[in-house]
Amino acid sequence: MKILIPNAKELNTHLESQSFQGLTEASQEILAVISQMKLEDLADFYKIKLDKAQLELDRWQRMANGQVRLYLAWQLYDGLMYRYMSRRDLSPAEVAYLEEHVFITTGFYGAINVFDWIAPHRLDFQGSLKVGQTSLKQFWRQQYDQLVQDDELIISLLSSEFEAVFSPAIQRKMTKVTFMEEKGGQLKTHSTISKKGRGRLVSEMARQQVKSLEALKCLRPDGFVYREDLSTECEIVFVKTI
Q1: What pLDDT does 128 receive?
Q2: Does 190 score more than 90 pLDDT?
């Protein structure tokens, strides 16, 4: 079983770190492409202002020079989903569960374990970055697929952007988890609801050592309850009543 979660733009570097230890060949290829981009091109790529693009450019240049520190991936990423995870005072069983089952999809390192050490960076699949003549999604597809090809159960907490990196055959094997709120009989979903729910769910799965769909459906992460009437064979829906 694999549980797939996305990376995050928000980063927290006020953490324990270690020295830079180099990159895989694949990440080096991507770094070579980004390192050649001018500041204006990088700002356009990220769709951000020049001052913020300068921060990103500095990060890439320091990485190219081996002058960055490394952080545990799921501690470095600090978006809303990650902040809703329990990331401290974990039991040995929870740590072992996360290490075996939970993987982060990234645009720079590929699909990695939550406990892998990575450098601060920003890269997703929304831009038009190409490695040679290959799109970033196609560049990582084989590595993404290999991670989960032998798993009977693949729990996707990903957005469509990250799911699209996987081949159609792997996507059809995924079980997607959706979070909704119900108020006055009206159901709604938005990114905030989803991110909070995903974070709570990962931690609850680790705490209860969930390894089957039936066990997953029994969870009550942060007040969300499984709704069979809204779920399908390939999508599990949790609803929280407000």
Answers
A1: 83
A2: no
Q: What is the pLDDT of residue 54?
A: 94
Write down the pLDDT at residue 39: 94
Say what the pLDDT of residue 92 is. Answer: 98
Q: Which residue blocks in the chain are alpha helix, DSSP H?
A: 25-35, 39-46, 50-64, 73-76, 80-83, 92-101, 136-148, 160-163, 168-173, 191-208, 213-217
- pTM score over 0.85: yes
152 in Cβ contact with 212 (< 8 Å): no
What radius of gyration, in Å, describes the C-alpha atoms of the chain? 19
- Yes or no: say if 122 and 56 are a contact pair by the CB < 8 Å rule: yes
188: CB partners within 8 A, 6+ apart = 180, 181, 182
The stretch 49-70 carries a mean pLDDT of: 94
pLDDT at 184 over 90: no
CB proximity list for 37: less than 8 A, separation 6 or greater: 45, 57
Kind and range of the H or E element at 222?
none
- The label of the residue with tokens 């694949």 reads 26
Eight-class DSSP state of 91: -
**Kind and range of the H or E run holding 110:** none
Report d(CA 241, CA 114) in Å as an integer.
31
Report which secondary-structure segment, H or E, holds 47.
none
Nearest 5°: the CA angle 152, 190, 81 is 60
What does the chain come to in residues?
242
| 222 vs 151: CA distance, rounded Å | 28
